[in-house]
Amino acid sequence: MFNHWGRPALRGRVLIVVAAFCALGGFQVATASAESCVYDSNTKQVTATVTAGSAATLVVSLGELRFGLVPAPCGGATTTNTDFVRIIGASGSNETIVLDQRGGTFGPGATAEGNIPEIEMAIELGDATDTVVVFATEGDDS
User: Which of 41, 56, 80, 139 shows the smallest number of beta carbons within 10 Å?
Assistant: First the structure.
């Protein structure tokens, strides 16, 4: 088969090169993330899970709690109907969790408290090499 310049067509050659490139690992397809975030309105708790070897962010956006590699709503969880957040990682891999309060603080929580009102958190990533990054508010966080 010839192209319009009278030269042999390269379609077959390009396909072979691309196939060889992929077979040798030159092209990697991104793996789908499987973060999850479930809100239990009876216990006023969020359980969030980060994919092994991945990163996820817990952030407040207009009072709503969002979680994930690309933060998505946590099933209706807000800063005023949630008392506790548990974030779970995987043993044997490195995860990074970002707690981002630049859009609002993790509080006051659903239940009134005698001290500083906040949402309690447990971060159980599984390895000493995991990372937790905290972005505080833009104001005084003393």
Answer: 139
